[in-house]
Amino acid sequence: MPFNIPILTIPLYYILALYPHGHALTIATRNHPTGHNNLNPKSTTLQASFKKRLSDREYAAYERAESCHRNHLENMPLFVAAVFAGLLAENQVGRSGDVGLTAFCIGWMAIRVLYTINYLTTETQLWSYARSGLYFAGTFWAFAVLGRAAWVLGS
User: Fold this and answer.
1) Do residues 76 and 14 touch, judged by C-beta distance below 8 A?
2) pLDDT tens column, 69-120
3) CA-CA distance, 86 to 80, in Å (whole number)?
4) Distances (CA, A) of 48 to 12, 54, 59, 120, 144
5) Which residues span the membrane (predicted)?
């Protein structure tokens, strides 16, 4: 293959992480992002103005989108660590696939896309459990890749 899929999934994941923030701004500005005041985007007064201007449902959607964005960024170090540990382990043994890295990277992206869709569209408690399940599936898979990499590198 002319490119390394695991390496390419890192910038793809970052782009995915940015999407919910843009979605939140679209909600907060009611589809007019040029009207967004970007001087202090994390200020409490800006958040208060959104809360005042938006309906409860719109503000809840805004909050969910920002939470989704933050969650992606919080999980990026785990994903990147799993990718590089997996690459190191597969390079050590000289065979791609011993750690299952490519499958993990494609699976992680699929899980996180489904996670994002669920986070941005869910308005009920029941569906939030599906989102939590997706989160834990990806997290446990990343730990499994780290564990397999540790096993290969320790052998």
Assistant:
1) yes
2) 999 999 999 999 999 999 999 888 776 566 789 999 999 999 999 999 999 9
3) 10
4) 32, 10, 10, 21, 42
5) 73-89, 101-121, 133-153
